[in-house]
Amino acid sequence: MEQYIVSARKYRPSDFRSVIGQNSLTTTLKNAIINRKLAHAYLFCGPRGVGKTTCARIFAKTINCTNLTESGEACNACESCVSFNEQRSLNIFEMDAASNNSVDDIRELVKQVMVPPQIGKYRVYIIDEVHMLSTPAFNAFLKTLEEPPEYAIFILATTEKHKILPTIISRCQVYDFNRIQLADTVDYLQFVAEQEHIVAEREALEVIAQKADGAMRDALSIFDQIVSYCGKEIKYKTVIDILNVLDYEYYLRLVDCFLQGDVVESLLILDDIINKGFDLQSFVSGLSSHIRDLLVSQNEKSVGLLQVSQSVRQRYLQQAKQCSPLFLFRALDLCVQCELNYKVSKNKRLLVELTMIKICQLTSEAEKKNDSRQKIGKIDTDDTSPAPTTNKDTLREVAASPQSQTEKPPHNILSGSKAGLLNLSSIMSGQADKAPDAANPKQPDTPQANGVDFTEDDLRKQWLEYAETVKELPFFYKYVTEISPKKDGNSCVITVVNEHQIQEFSDNRQQIESFLSQRLGRDVKLVVNKREIEISKSLSPQEALDKMKSKNKHLQDFTDRIGLDFDYLQ
Ligand SMILES: [Zn+2]
């Protein structure tokens, strides 16, 4: 019976040429060998499974080959090459620092380094996962690394470059290995499949490559796993079943639903996905990736970042065209929020459902905004047009994005509202006239629409009415009630004392102006003045007193007489 060899070993590259996805790096190494410009220490960095150890082995073999090819590759025929290929060469020494990381291990290594090679020119010491060495071990190693014997070459490999001491890095030539591109992995899997007389759908190999995430070794072992299950024919459907990968069809369909604001259908799709046994968390991260893919598909420059099979590429591009960048950006943001909250959420399914509902509302909200803007335009010129939104829509909108309330034209939020729910300042007379509301019992008093100029008293009265509408915003409510506005023509002039108040009032300017304009029957503008306070709060009591004294000469006399004491004041 034929011996089974795993593909990752069977198809391990035997020369630089067959290393996948690291072209510039292998070329540099080959050139160094051809020009005999070898360093004594190399540091190979990069993610797992991308060929660091493989390259180190090929390098060791190549520099010992007695019959180098012109292109700087090992001949694979000379005695040295054969002994390397049969894994009996004494000129290569591999150590895994993950399990041998003590000072003693390094001392053992250093001893070995002192023994020159019997045959061949160089002895290569490969230390894998070198970042795992303990600090004393690192230090013990440093001396040898500084002054190695002529024949010794060290190749240190690590997945975590940032953990390597700078003193080590500065003594090494550093090579950064790339993650292997999806297309390269797929090509190689295709090659292996052909060698093994296996018929594989390209899409199926793409799923494998995606799952391997840039590591060829993983890709090949997944490939083996699939082959052992499917035999000589690898189909996309089988692969997504075995690997438990969610079909991209689901994501495409979901985004279609989002675009139509179809909450019901998207919840049903989610239910289907859950029933198939998919993990909710990986579903959300898959959805994020899908939206990210759509986002990069929108721009010619970034479309290269889209790593999907040719066959579905067109569908991604098409879907990307239907989405606005803002929609994708917000949807992605919601997905990321969902991922962040996932672990702490007690009802994970509800969290995911809520996220999808919010995404659905992104489009309907944007439409409505446009819509209502048009309608509001009409109201400005034509008072008879009906209130634009229904109560239901209003609630939905508010639930969707409470933070955006202030940007919205107040007409839109308001209409026929349940006052308790919508704490908004915008519980306004325009609509309240049509549907008198408990929140606005006094509103018949208003001098609205009779064309008579309002008085400062009217203004103050309405100002307090306005305050009632912002009761649920404690800070702002306090600011509003503490201020007594002045009338200046059609302007409502208020004086504030700090930047925070300025900010609050300018955030609410639109609502205040609408409210007052509606109530007072005039186009009222809000004017915010800042009062310069002479004694700022940052002055200490003594400084404040000194300042006051400089303005009022009698104060000194006064404080002396009453014996003013600061401890007491504070
Ligand atoms: Zn050779």
Secondary structure elements and pairings:
Blueprint: H1 7-10, H2 23-34, E1 41-45, H3 52-64, H4 79-85, E2 92-96, H5 103-113, E3 123-128, H6 135-146, E4 152-158, H7 166-169, E5 173-176, H8 182-195, E6 199-200, H9 202-212, H10 216-230, E7 233-234, H11 236-242, H12 248-260, H13 263-275, H14 280-297, H15 310-322, H16 325-342, H17 348-381, H18 391-400, H19 410-414, H20 429-434, H21 456-469, H22 474-482, E8 486-488, E9 491-496, H23 499-507, H24 509-520, E10 525-530, H25 541-551, H26 554-562, H27 566-569
Parallel strand pairs: 1-4, 1-5, 2-3, 3-4, 6-7, 9-10
Antiparallel strand pairs: 8-9
Provide a short characterization of the protein structure.
The protein has helices spanning 7-10, 23-34, 52-64, 79-85, 103-113, 135-146, 166-169, 182-195, 202-212, 216-230, 236-242, 248-260, 263-275, 280-297, 310-322, 325-342, 348-381, 391-400, 410-414, 429-434, 456-469, 474-482, 499-507, 509-520, 541-551, 554-562, 566-569; strands at 41-45, 92-96, 123-128, 152-158, 173-176, 199-200, 233-234, 486-488, 491-496, 525-530. With 570 residues, it is α/β, with parallel strands linked by helices. The radius of gyration is 37 Å and the shape is flat.
